[in-house]
Amino acid sequence: MIVQLYGTRGSVPSPLRTREYIQKVTQILELVQKAGPDSLIDIQKFISKLPPYLTQVVGGNTTCVSVTSSNGRRMIFDCGTGLRILGDELMRKEFQNGEGKIALFFSHTHWDHIQGIPFFKPIYIPGNELHFYSPYPDLKERLEKQQSPEFFPIPFSALASTKLFTCLSLGETLDLEGDCKVSFYPLKHPGGSFAYRVDENGKIFIFATDAEFTGEDFDSVTEMKPFFENADLLVLDAQYTLDESFQKFDWGHTSYTMAVNCAVAWNVKNSF
């Protein structure tokens, strides 16, 4: 199972600002100055030894996570603006010829979790097969509203790929091709939200964005343990500092302090 994060921001995209870019460049040049001119004889080798915070950009796009099963089956969890970049990558493969097949799962339909769909190139190609999964019986209607003429020039109905919708029932486990199973669990968030769990070959990945856990909720954290327990990788809402979580109580998000507490309580091996 391969997990890739294409979008990790909430509410709005947050690209790297000029000031932040200059800070990175300045720190790199300071390291060059410290190491001496010989360090640039092999530039790529020098860059490979830099810390990740200087060579990588974290965040930027809104929520979109890709999971690829051991047999190559691709799943997408939420369709924020990160979906556009993922779509560009998929177009280098079978999706450019209308031979692609992919499953899309939705935690909920707040704008930052669906706004990438109109810019997802594979959805415009005839022959591509997109399977939409969620517990929402009206998911198709919600996506159509996003692309109504007042907001977008191309209606959802005009997207030429084959689009199939499946409404999931609470407690249902979806068997995908091979040994991959997907289940879901309701979370506390305005309008509702759902976590998804992928089980394959003894490995567990859980996607649980947009959820509010507080100290008062710790009883419910314990109740959720059978769903979250022993996950190999957990992607969990951790939007706030602890102070912000008090100021924005009931807004539907979790502090990173509480997120760590949850991960420990659930015996999670790795958490993002």
UniProtKB/TrEMBL annotation:
Please give the name of this protein: Beta-lactamase family protein
Name any one Pfam family assigned in the record.
Lactamase_B_2
Q: Report the source organism.
A: Leptospira alexanderi serovar Manhao 3 str. L 60
**SMART domains cross-referenced by the UniProt entry:** Lactamase_B
Question: Residue span of the signal peptide, if any?
Answer: none
The record's annotation in SUPFAM superfamilies points to:
Metallo-hydrolase/oxidoreductase
Q: Where is the Metallo-beta-lactamase domain?
A: 61-253
